[in-house]
Amino acid sequence: MRESRQITMIQAAAILISTIIGVGVLPIPLFAVRAADSGAPLVTFLGVVLAFVGLFLITVLGMRFPNQSIVQYSEAIIGKWFSWIGSAAIIGFFAVLTSLTAREFGEVVITSVLTKTPLEVTVIVMLLLAAISTRNDITTFAYIHYFYFPLLLGPALLIVALSLKNSDVINLLPVWGNEHKGMIRGVMTIGALFQGSFIITTVIPAMRHPEKAMKASLWGMVISGGLYVTIVAATVSVFGSEETKNLLWPTLELAKATSLPANVLERLDAAFLAVWVTAVFTTLFSSYFLAIKEMSKLFRLRDHKMFAFFLLPAVFFIAMVPQNILNMYEIIQSVGRIGLVITIAYPGLLLIIAMIRKKRGDSSENQPSV
């Protein structure tokens, strides 16, 4: 059954932005400086470019098959059995991504705010909130993202702007960095932080005008990518690359070092964490929604609600696998880099085969449903 086409281009862009801006905001400067020292902003920019390649491929595929998501049109492109393997890999990957996002959220909360609260409690609360929210339809999903979008972007830009008064441009020189051995790995790690943008494959079939999906993708990547590059540049310019390497969550330290004019608030870390919790929720919400929505398509079910709590125990179990924070970030970086095969290579392969076989979806139903 074809979904009601209610999502506008602006809402689609808002979904991408609020999905991408998430848990990775805190450690991204650390990943970048480890890769290239003062060249961290450049590495981040290259990571954004890599992420956009994947988003471009999945958006072109979505526009080519405007009434279907990747689970559905991959069957038409490469056949039932091969597409089943690819679809299962996508669902599994985003289920794991949901787990790791929840675990990272739990670690930050018990370290910075609720120090006496068990890790399991913070993780299960966030997962339950996401699971309950994913029982809504795609239109409500879009409205939730659209509502939170300005609450995420505004405070983040404010903190970056206020932190620049403590910056020193010399900390950003040389622009290309001193170390280049880990640049490729760093670009892949940062590009992996944008994998939530894969949600566009679920959004396009519900857009009023699927032909505007590329514009939404471009705006989504420019705004979220621009924010990440700005955060990394601000952090390195304030602390320097060597000092940033010693900080577990450099962006949080940047918020602590930033104050409002006239010392209305001497530290912005508490306000920043409140915004960050919202950002984590929207990211978790999208990855979990993508996993269960595509699972319902894989099993040809009309509704995805039954999977909302069905997947929860497995997702929680995976979230508890990392032994500590350091082990968690090692797993996150490894899983993210492996995931690039699923989010970039697989859509690229599908697009090439679709073009060779001249496969294209039916676009006669692109008008909004009444």
UniProtKB/TrEMBL annotation:
<feature type="transmembrane region" description="Helical">
    <location>
        <begin position="270"/>
        <end position="291"/>
    </location>
</feature>
<keyword id="KW-0812">Transmembrane</keyword>
<dbReference type="GO" id="GO:0016020">
    <property type="term" value="C:membrane"/>
</dbReference>
<protein>
    <submittedName>
        <fullName>GerAB/ArcD/ProY family transporter</fullName>
    </submittedName>
</protein>
<keyword id="KW-1133">Transmembrane helix</keyword>
<dbReference type="InterPro" id="IPR004761">
    <property type="entry name" value="Spore_GerAB"/>
</dbReference>
<feature type="transmembrane region" description="Helical">
    <location>
        <begin position="81"/>
        <end position="102"/>
    </location>
</feature>
<feature type="transmembrane region" description="Helical">
    <location>
        <begin position="108"/>
        <end position="131"/>
    </location>
</feature>
<feature type="transmembrane region" description="Helical">
    <location>
        <begin position="12"/>
        <end position="33"/>
    </location>
</feature>
<feature type="transmembrane region" description="Helical">
    <location>
        <begin position="307"/>
        <end position="326"/>
    </location>
</feature>
<feature type="transmembrane region" description="Helical">
    <location>
        <begin position="338"/>
        <end position="356"/>
    </location>
</feature>
<keyword id="KW-0309">Germination</keyword>
<dbReference type="GO" id="GO:0009847">
    <property type="term" value="P:spore germination"/>
</dbReference>
<feature type="transmembrane region" description="Helical">
    <location>
        <begin position="143"/>
        <end position="164"/>
    </location>
</feature>
<keyword id="KW-0472">Membrane</keyword>
<dbReference type="Pfam" id="PF03845">
    <property type="entry name" value="Spore_permease"/>
</dbReference>
<keyword id="KW-0813">Transport</keyword>
<feature type="transmembrane region" description="Helical">
    <location>
        <begin position="39"/>
        <end position="61"/>
    </location>
</feature>
<feature type="transmembrane region" description="Helical">
    <location>
        <begin position="218"/>
        <end position="240"/>
    </location>
</feature>
<feature type="transmembrane region" description="Helical">
    <location>
        <begin position="184"/>
        <end position="206"/>
    </location>
</feature>
<comment type="similarity">
    <text>Belongs to the amino acid-polyamine-organocation (APC) superfamily. Spore germination protein (SGP) (TC 2.A.3.9) family.</text>
</comment>
